Recover the amino acids of this structure.
């Protein structure tokens, strides 16, 4: 940051400056966080920041692509060289559930390719080649220590990606991250049928939650469901079966119902966020993770 500030003080005019892609991304992030602060820093020439028009011009020529991009892992490899070993441990997160897209095919003039078709890299099933995609599959890496999170790959699929394809993509993502200096200890997904099928392909069962690590046989690669979706599953189970048994006891629907009725008849509420909508959710409310977190 000191080098950037020094460079900013040396720049007399922003005309004719050529910005790197990395600096353009940094500027976009600063603009998103605070447009007013961005304008002030640019006006006072604290940093050599491009104008909004220039940013838009650079955005148009940047070429985002699907799959695991080589440049992403080159950047991560460089980043890992300047981090402590304890900061290079984390997990792969897969986001697929509820990411439905509207099917649309467009011609990309800059790449001369058609965008919007199924793209699962080298693992695209033969029967889905040239099919229109309607789901997005995103892989992200998050360290156990540190506030940052990095998207490492995005794919397009028709419907939920097949179990065998997910399995291969996880292995590839793990290998790429490990070769970049980061250690992958676990994979986090939601508990959907396709993801559970992928777990089974790795040998995960009700009593076994890991498999042999693809890099080092002495290590384990663990699989787990994300906490918010576990809470949503518990919530829907209580509503459907009127009870849920857990290690700390039994959760009963009648208890929630009594709390709502009690709060409705009193000014001081015990659980003011709990409403009848949580007891009798309608249609898409049953898929609302935020509502489920209220009853946790």
């Amino acid at each position: 940051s000191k080098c950037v500030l020094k460079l900013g003080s040396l720049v007399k005019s922003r005309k004719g400056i050529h910005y790197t892609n990395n600096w353009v991304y940094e500027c976009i992030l600063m603009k998103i966080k605070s447009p007013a602060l961005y304008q002030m820093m640019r006006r006072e020439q604290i940093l050599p920041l491009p104008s909004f028009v220039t940013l838009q011009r650079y955005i148009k020529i940047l070429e985002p692509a699907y799959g695991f991009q080589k440049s992403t892992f080159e950047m991560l490899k460089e980043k890992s060289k300047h981090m402590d070993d304890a900061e290079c441990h984390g997990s792969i997160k897969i986001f697929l559930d509820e990411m439905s897209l509207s099917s649309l095919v467009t011609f990309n003039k800059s790449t001369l390719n058609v965008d919007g078709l199924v793209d699962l890299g080298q693992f695209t099933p033969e029967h889905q080649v040239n099919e229109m995609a309607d789901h997005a599959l995103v892989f992200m890496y998050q360290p156990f220590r540190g506030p940052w999170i990095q998207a490492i790959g995005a794919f397009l699929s028709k419907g939920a990606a097949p179990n065998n394809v997910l399995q291969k993509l996880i292995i590839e993502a793990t290998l790429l991250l490990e070769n970049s200096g980061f250690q992958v200890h676990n994979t986090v997904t939601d508990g959907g049928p396709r993801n559970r099928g992928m777990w089974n392909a790795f040998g995960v069962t009700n009593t076994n939650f890991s498999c042999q690590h693809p890099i080092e046989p002495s290590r384990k690669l663990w699989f787990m469901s994300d906490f918010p979706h576990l809470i949503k599953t518990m919530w829907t189970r209580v509503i459907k079966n009127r009870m849920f048994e857990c290690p700390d006891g039994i959760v009963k629907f009648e208890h929630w119902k009594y709390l709502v009725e009690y709060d409705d008849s009193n000014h001081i509420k015990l659980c003011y966020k709990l409403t009848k909508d949580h007891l009798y959710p309608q249609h898409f409310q049953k898929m609302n993770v935020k509502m489920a977190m209220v009853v946790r």
User: Anything to note?
Assistant: The chain has three domains: 1-61, 81-225, 229-294. The radius of gyration is 24 Å. Residues 1-10 have pLDDT under 50 and may be disordered. The longest helix spans residues 163-179.
